[in-house]
Amino acid sequence: MPRFKARFDRLSHLFFPLSVLVILLIINLLKGADYFKITMVNGVLYGNIPNILYGASELVILSIGMTLVTAAARGQDISIGESGAISSAIFVQYVLNAGEVTIWTILVGFLISCVAGLVIGAFNGTLVSFFNVQPMVATLILFLGGRSIAFIIDGKVSPILANPISNKIGTVIPGVPIQTPIILTAVFIALVAVVLKTTNLRLYVEAVGINPNAARLNGINPKKVIFLTFLLMGVCSAVAGFIAVNKVGRHDSVNLLKFIMMDAILAVALGGNSLSGGKFSITGSIIGAYTIEVLNRTLLRLEVNPEAIKAFKAVFIIILMIVASPVVRVYARKCLGKVKTFVAGNAIGKPGGLNQAVISSMDSSAKKEE
Amino acid sequence: MQTEIILKMEGICKSFPGVRALHNVDFVLRKGEIHALMGENGAGKSTLTKILNGVYEKDAGRIMIEGRPVHFKSPQDAQNMGIGTVFQEIALCPNLTVAENMFIGRSRDVFVNWKQMNEKAAAMLRSLGIPASPTQELASCSIAVQQMIAIARAVDMDCKILILDEPTSSLDEDEVQKLFALMRELKARGVGIIFITHFLDQVYAISDRITVLRNGELIGEYLTAELPQIELVAKMMGKALSDVSAMKKQEPSKSDKRVPVFAAKELSSAAGVKPFDFTIHKGEVNGFAGLLGSGRSESVRAIFAADKITGGEVKINGKRVKIRTPLHAMKHGIGYLPEDRKSEGIIDELSVRDNIILALQVMKGFFKPLARKQAEEFANQYIKLLDIKTPSLDTPIKSLSGGNQQKVILARWLLTHPMYLILDEPTRGIDVGTKVEIQKLVLKLAADGMSLTFISSEIDEMLRVCSRLIVMKDREIVGELSGENMTEQNVMHMIAQGGK
Amino acid sequence: MKRLSLLLVVMLVLSTVCGLTLAASQKLIKVGIVNLPPEESGYRQANVEDMNQVFSRANGYDAKQTNTADVNEQMAAAMGYIRDGVDYLLISAAHASGWDDVLLAAKRAGVSVILFDRMIDTDPSNYQAALVSDMYYEGQLATDWILNNVPEPRNVILIRGQLGSAAEVGRSAPLLKAAAEGKLNVVWDGTGGDTWSLEEARRVVEAAIAAGKDFNVIYAQNDGMAQGACQALEAAGISFGKNGKVKIIGFDFNRFALRNVQAGYWNADVQCNPRMAGQIDQWIKSGNIPKGVVYQKEIILDTNTITDEHIEKYGINPDPGKGVITR
User: Fold this and answer.
1) What is the CA radius of gyration of chain B?
2) 8 Å CB contact of C39 and A253
3) Does A250 lie at the interface with C, CB-CB under 8 angstroms?
4) Paired residues of B211 in beta bridges
5) What is the SS3 assignment for A76?
6) Where do the domains of chain C lie?
7) CB distance from A215 to chain B under 8 Å?
8) Domain-ending residue, one of B200, B227, B254
9) What is the mean pLDDT of residues B217-222?
10) Chain B residue nearest residue A217, CA to CA
């Protein structure tokens, strides 16, 4: 039973991000019942859900990095789109200058772009952790100058990446029923899960984000941890840039991943994470990222006039943020708790809070299973 | 002293939820007098001054200024009645000029006559002997001068009563003298000054009278000249001189011949403690005694490298080692429970489990996380051992009571099996039952061979637990007591006389 | 060391002499160019490069160029050129308003002002000539192509650029007019947003497909959005291009887009010519500068009319190579 309770506590923070997503999905369902329909088109799964997963891949990856930076540095990296544009420009240049394009060319190019991402992360991280510059101010530098750097790497044009392998990475590999970016995103999420499982990243980042002083007195170097999160952010940007440039098939330094940091920050917030650092939920941010993608598509599905689409998005976001806000959360918990207490009190004849009520219901169900 | 009374506070009471901060306190301030308000932390000094300058409203009692009863609803009210306050942290704008800092925000005029303002400021600076020019930027003045300008600002508001809350804590000796000169100047003008400080010598250097508070109650008002330092210390600590002698004897440490577990020579840190030597042996419990601000916390922080180490050499079990960061100290088997539990001990949003395993986990390294099951086992083991009351392992530590939070931090360090554990105020702000438990635990750990340093503001607690006391005053070690010599009386003597 | 400095002196003297002789042999025309930065877009890059190429010393010009997206910096640069006594001032403004002082100063100094690519909100008497693309005309070319090449019913998905921008307004108008006249239907009206985003265009088409709309033309107001639309169609298994159901029209003459048209992957692309320097050069050299607004002659190319020469000469951005499709 304590196990159930523990699991429930651990997952309870996902309740609100999920409820926001569910609200949007319900709106979509009301508009047309075939929303979840998936068909096979040329041997590939097709439908709204695959489209959402495909469209959100870069945002999901970036929001993971943004979650870590936010948690440790108590601020946001606003240069992620630019960082992705630079690292993918380097990838494209490597591939274009490598002669014949093989899977190895792409792989080496990808690794080089990851190194570029690390360098960018190190730059931002140095400013933030060792020079104590506010994250937003530190990353403002690359936000303003990053696209010019990418433009110069591109040789002042938009180079074309029209080779069959890139195309397969950007769309589908024949014989695989799922679009490649979706698979890459899933692999990336799995890698992040492994990293969180095999290292103390979570404990270190949360400790530093909540109380850097106490963390320091327990042997953690807060500067190094903040620096590390920026390095990871750099890798996330490089991976997102890699996926984005292969989707597009050419490197447009001006528009690639433009303004995506807004959505990434929003994803972190929708995921129930505090933007001022501390405890974090990457699962929440991932849900938040998909929520934003669903939101963009919901507005199109509702055939909102293009002129009004921005205003509608703003209104929706305000509503979603209010739903996910701590005030509402606490209030809802209280109400839920009262209801549960009432129900539990009537059913079992003893009072208890929300958790207790849920646990007792879990207990009974567990007993039934036995 | 038949001088005129300008302030009379009678029967002041103030409670905060769960705490009785002041109970039936009287305070009298006379014209042209420097009156030291003394007491250990939590004695009620700051509550009293905050009632006087209108930050808090009193629950009961009367305040009379020049014989007329007053009632402050806001700091503005108090200011209008001629009460000025200068806090420890200077509440001025460093990027404005001296004159601007002295006058701006005080008049309702929309337009400022800069010339007139600068002239007025210059006149005042001259008359008070403050070495600053009205047009220079405040940030370019020394801290002492900034402090004086803050005073000048307060004085200009026709101030009759001036509260100086720890004005000297960031000043050096020379600057303190300058500040004293200014205080004497104001005194000559008839201003009544309430002076709060932790430096006993300064109290005797400048004050006319002393009022001592303890645990929110008035202990008494004394003429400085008639109260010996030792008695002042006794009154602050709450022990009458007479009942100090009958303390239980500790076992004399017989460890002198052995190699010390930890030995430091000329150790100093950026926190401002003077270079000191320190040793501790296996199974020994020693303590740093001294008033608040005497440097006892800074000393143990230097041992753990919690502040930047600026010099000295350290030996562990006779071997020279380099300890430059807390992690080094931890890897050499040192644990440190900090004085300020809230800001340096607990990671408030993290679970009890994470808080317990934190130090062990960090010592194991970034790439070796404990298995969840193992972490839970460890946590449960210490929750049981220390009888920590928590709803679950996943409960955030911030929702536990202070005593239980402290036990979690203790568990955190015990889990690392330190050879030497430093406990700075482990019993502050926790209930009596837990206090005793912690004291017993310390003795048990020592009996098991652990070395400990135990610091407490309550001297009898230290006498009960420690076998050796290192006495500090004004950031310097002034003596050491052990065995039969270790009595409250001797500690007080040492503090009062500064070991001289 | 001595030798090195001697060499330097010799080189300095030589270069000065050369410069003097050059200056003496032909009088250079002094031109000040105020333009936007090349990293703004592929279009701007081609424009800036063209300006550099044409207004060169070899071509008889002493040209100074300022590229910035900050209109205040642009104005300051323009004022500087007027003070320097340039003969001609060429401006592509980052922002359309607030230029009156600069233009009057130029007038007083007798500097001839030629606007290019972007108009300025001012009295036409304040400048000599303006050479710009006619966005409405571009839209007309595309709309006419649909009317001539797609049999009824003509069901169009319109993907607009940044709403309210000159290009969006101009390129949308002829299509909406044709729709109002009943010559075609706009079955879905979306936008790529402020960044003319490929991803957003893909979402728009995906939404149209999900909503079960029947359509046979995609009218995307730049090449990137046309590409995004094609990605959506390809994933949904809807045929398009020369032999497909849906006809694809893009704008801007990116070389990748032109190759796609050439390969029959798309159907048509409309030019938006960034290369204005040649025309202006001709005006200046001939001493016959027209007065007022002059629109560039622009063309539409489809699978039948496109040639390698077109792609080589008129395209912008790199050429992926013949037969290469950019999906």
Assistant:
1) 25
2) yes
3) yes
4) B37, B221
5) coil
6) 26-132, 135-273+300-314
7) yes
8) B227
9) 90
10) B326
Cα–Cα distance between B284 and B498 in angstroms, integer? 25
Tell me the pLDDT band of A356, cut-offs 50, 70 and 90: very low
pLDDT value at C245 more than 70? yes
The CATH number given to A54-324 is 1.10.3470
Residue B136, in any domain of the structure:
yes
Helix (H, G, I), strand (E, B) or coil at A208: helix
Are B212 and B271 in the same domain? Answer: no
Q: How far apart are CA C36 and CA C67, in angstroms?
A: 5
CA–CA gap between residue B365 and residue B363 (Å, rounded): 5
pLDDT score, position B102: 81
Beta bridge partners of B34: B193
| Stretch 97-126 of chain A: residues touching chain C, C-beta under 8 Å | none
For chain B, the straight-line distance linking the first and the last C-alpha, in angstroms and rounded, comes to: 32
Considering the domain boundaries, does residue B174 fall inside one? yes
C-alpha distance from C294 to closest chain A C-alpha (Å): 28
Confidence of residue C79 (pLDDT cuts 50, 70, 90): very high
CA B307 to chain centre: 17
Q: Which candidate, A162, A158, A180, A147, places its Cα nearest to that of A95?
A: A162
Q: Which CATH number fits domain C26-132: 3.40.50.1000, 3.40.50.2000, 3.30.160.390, 3.40.50.2300?
A: 3.40.50.2300
Tens digits of residue pLDDT in C27-57: 889 999 999 988 888 888 889 999 999 999 9
> pLDDT of C110-133, one tens digit each?
999 999 998 888 888 999 999 999
Return the closest-CA partner of residue C186 out of C222, C226, C216: C216
What tokens were used for A302?
């509702």
Predicted pLDDT of residue C15: 55
* CB-closest option in C196, C237, C317 to A42: C237
Q: Which of A275, A291, A313, A204 is nearest to A283 (CA)?
A: A291
The answer to whether residue A345 scores a pLDDT higher than 70 is: no
Verify C-B touch: 3 or more CB pairs within 8 A.
no
B154 and B12 within one domain: yes
Q: Which CATH architecture has domain C135-273+300-314?
A: 3-Layer(aba) Sandwich (3.40)
For residues C195 and A256, give the distance between their C-alpha atoms in angstroms, rounded to a whole number.
Answer: 10
Size of interface A-B (CB pairs under 8 A): 84
For residue range B368-391, list pLDDT tens digits in order. 999 999 999 999 999 998 888 888
Q: Is A214 on the interface with B (CB under 8 A)?
A: yes
ipTM: 0.84
Coarse DSSP helix, strand, coil percentages of chain B, rounded to the nearest 5 percent: 40, 25, 35
Decide if A210 touches B, using CB distance below 8 A.
Answer: yes
**What angle separates helix A222-248 from helix A80-97, to the nearest 10 degrees?**
60
Strands C155-160 and C185-191: parallel
List the domain range (segments joined by +) for residue B377.
Answer: 262-497
On chain A, the residues whose CB falls within 8 A of the CB of B354 are 203, 206-207
Cis before C153? omega within 30: yes
